[in-house]
User: Fold this.
Amino acid sequence: MPAIAMEGLTKVYPTGQRALDALDLEVKEGEFLVLVGPSGCGKTTALRLVAGLEEPTGGVLRIGDRDVTHLPPKDRDVAMVFQHYALYPHMTIEANMAFPLRTRRLPKAAVRAKVLEVARLLDLEPVLGRKPAQLSGGQRQRVAMGRAIVREPAVFLMDEPLSNLDAKLRVQMRAELLRLQRRLGTATLYVTHDQVEAMTMGDRVAVLRGGVLQQCDTPHALYQRPANLFVAGFLGTPAMNLFRAQLAEDGQRLRLGSQQLPLPPEVLATRPALAPYRGRTVAVGIRPEHLALGATGAPATLRAEVALVEALGAEQLVHFTLDAPAQPVEDRAGRPGEEPAPLRLEQTGATGTARVGPDEAVRVGSTVEFGLDPATLQFFDPEGGQALWA
Amino acid sequence: MRPTRGATSTLGRGARLGAVTLLALLFLVPLYVAVVAATHPASAFLRGVPVLPGGDLLANGRQVLVRGLPGTPSVPRMLLNSALMAASVTLGKLLIAVPAAFAIGFFRFPGRRLVFWLIFVTLMLPIEVTFFPTYQVSVQLGLFNNFGGLVVPLLASATAVFLFRQVFAAFPLDLVDAARLDGAGPLRFLAEVALPMARPTLAAVAVIEFVYGWNQYLWPLVITSSPSNATIVMGIREQIAAAESFAVPQWNLVMLVALLALIPPVVVVVAMQRWFVRGLVFQAR
Assistant:
């Protein structure tokens, strides 16, 4: 039995805006499921529907074995951690954490014992008497967690709980939060717009876009086999390089601008869905780490002109241009309102990024040859965007 | 070259300080005259107003508080009436305005906007428009010449509803959501989250309404007739009449009564000043 089951969950606002469109999603018992997507993709709406803060306009929501679609928040056995923590500013930390227990009319001694237990777990004992304003961001975050934990809910809901912390603390709290969730074993639905957070934290990650679920799978599977162009472009930093290419009639070569890449027969054999695209245009995706410099004996090579080099210490990011057309992807970087890259003409160069070793000497303006294994290529329908595997 | 910032700001501060001092003096002079007058025997005024305080404060006080001026209601009684009236008005207004503002600020119901604007519009009506209808209704409800008449017609306050509504309307929505998830119903939310967070406004409104109730002049004058229901602010007028009936007008006593009438509101304002100022600043933002 899943901890949370959303069946065709839909939210249409009175303005006609379809924030969530027939979402089918399950959070398993004890699972940490991350909902990720660009702003306005419906992830927060989904969370608020599960919390009961908003009424769905369609679909069914189950928590455990109960249909909670129309229950008020307090009867759903869920606890939520808010982006801005939503601590009661006039109450002490202890009172904040005790509040959800007091509303249940639990005996005072039991409330106090439970709050102390959770405070110890979260290392909050020394600050129990303080007010939220006297605490650091990390501590406030933990208090918000504590307020959720004391109730021992069936489900945790978290709305970008780490986005208000500075970068270093965020990484630290990520691990802390995960450890805590593992220890409590409580199913968690976690919303974020940060794909790194999603990939590092989620047992599974559900990618939303425009209120529609794109794909839900383990981070590894999402990265290795994105279901469509959007997921391919959204996950991974730097993002996957996406170009438009011509698949030869015999399926043995791929024409990228003025260059030809040989495709061994396995490429087509492992991707039956690619066969109908012989002699047609496909979108091809290359992860930046699959482009190697100076590797001899690579099955294929790609020539490109170096436009910019970013030395990151452990690696270098080589930004290059290629005379192949770029494959446009909406919302690729996940920024709201960003225009899709304009479709480039065959003659103009598309840009891409390669991840190479720190010691490679790369000169801006020079032409380099990247080694490449065609088996690592990803193919997509250039219009519909779906991945071309089976 | 421009003058250095330090120089201009020192100059500016000096000028500002001078202006403030001048204004303060302007306000203090009448008060000082009253204090000086209250400490002299009545005969002192035959030679003009003395400049320095005298030593008759206690004697005058006994005269005012114990014996009183002939034909006027007792001063302690009027002080008590005023205090009771102001306190009741304040409490009543808060009890009515807070739930009203809570309903308008936090609940969605048909006509919510209309209700708010209806309340808001009454803010703009001049007192004179409602004065005689209020009097008529009050008398018919049996509120003439009793304590209820002093308090009940003043209870509904658009100002207080408006101020609270502004606070509630600006309330962080996250906190509302958090309280809902924590299982707090509307009343618990009001009592334990919304009101404690609105405490500065609560204090500010309480002070404003106490002073408002205390300073009522026209309404007590109209709605009461017996000395036992007189309030201090309306009573000063009678004190003046009585003091002038003496061969030597008892201005010292009138001044002392006026000073006594001033003390309770000042105490309330000073006592709640910290909250009061914060509340108004919070409003301004």
Q: What stands out?
A: Chain A has a mean pLDDT of 91. The first strand of chain A starts at residue 4 and ends at 12.
